[in-house]
Write a structure and sequence with these properties.
4 copies of one chain form a homotetramer.
Chain A lengths: L10 H15 L7 E2 L2 H8 L3 H13 L3 E3 L5 E3 L3 H25 L4 H11 L3
Antiparallel strand pairs in A: 1-3, 2-3
Chain A binds a DNA duplex through helix 3.
DNA sequence: GTGGTCTAGACCACT
DNA sequence: GTGGTCTAGACCACC
């Protein structure tokens, strides 16, 4: 997994978001075992405690669960994962609108540019 | 200015892009003086040589020009800036499509989601 | 405040419960300022991080909120506090039933003993 | 046996109460041999002298007796044990009333809550 | 000074 | 080995 951490926002939050993204995109498939806290932490180059927090929050949202000494499993509740997908998509849409707005494009402009993209 | 540097692409390129973005969005208005290389480098936390390269490339694209001891000025060629705006917008559009595709959305889905966003 | 910590259960959980109890019983009145994390931690004889966690969880439940540099305030949502009171009461009732059951008393016995208590 | 010692009351008293509780609930059955003072003290993590005091008081109440080199035996006087059961039950009842009172419940409230518990 | 976050390192219980 | 918890100590942003 590729980790992209900027400061100015809590690292654990960014980790959580990126793991959630990985769950939705299939990096961590439904029902699969997640790497251990220590593995993930080493991979991302953060302290295990920080990664632990990210995973705890993820678990609180019902996206994974710990299975004792077996590690953590991605939830098998596909409805929950779909809900997450929609939430992330909403955010992508909003970021697109904001990005275009910063360039001086209105909401209508943003739609038009997107539609015109096909014809190229 | 807020610098957001990831490490898997050339730093100077990312710097160039972000300064270009600043020119388009008005952080560095048409005809205004850019901060010095050393200032920018210190602000971004990079080596002045790296920032120098970013600015040289920017100058090569005609988006700014050195005026001897006065530092660098943003171009006053609004047509050039508009072209840059359109280029960046194209990239934003493409990134949006890619982002949605990673979530499993087709091009048509991406348009629909964008159109539905207004109704919320 | 009197802290009563047993091991074999997470300390942060016990801290949270006891602060919640304090909110319901008026030790920390509605809308009042809570002592700082460091004060509470020193008072309870635990690490500030542990107390921090207890308070974060309390905040997540909407029972208090941080007000930047002003510290934490107990919520003013009396309905929420009443709900907490009912939750704690339920637990007290259950503990009573369990306690009596361990002594060999049935549920009906437990009620009878309670009713007879008045006549003494 | 699980020992739960708080520090604002004499340790020996708490030990005595908990052993008495164990006699009533069957952890130490009627007529059975109690563990040695040293065993009990080690288990509870207290000084043997403290445990010795707890057991002496218990013996003074007639709930157990030393049998020379054989250690201590729980009394076989079931009437005495039943009396103890009633005494402890009275205390449980009182603690329940106090606990509910701290939450703002009257004696009548405490009875009502207990009766309503069944219907859930 | 406040809350919040992060790191480092330790301990424990355990499908 | 795993997750979970706890401690110690540090840094930051905000007033």
């Amino acid at each position: 997994m590729e980790w992209n951490l900027s400061d100015n926002r809590p690292i654990w939050l960014q980790l959580k978001e990126q793991i959630a993204h990985g769950i939705v995109t299939g990096t961590y498939p439904t029902g699969a075992r997640l790497p251990s806290v220590r593995e993930l932490a080493a991979d991302a180059g953060v302290n295990p405690n920080t990664m632990q927090r990210a995973l705890s929050e993820l678990e609180r949202d019902g996206l994974c669960r710990s299975v004792g000494t077996m590690g953590r499993m991605v939830t098998e509740d596909t409805e929950k994962i779909d809900a997450l997908r929609r939430t992330i998509a909403k955010d992508v849409v909003q970021q697109y609108i904001i990005g275009m707005a910063r360039l001086g494009y209105t909401y209508a402009d943003a739609i038009r540019e997107l539609e015109e993209y096909e014809h190229e």
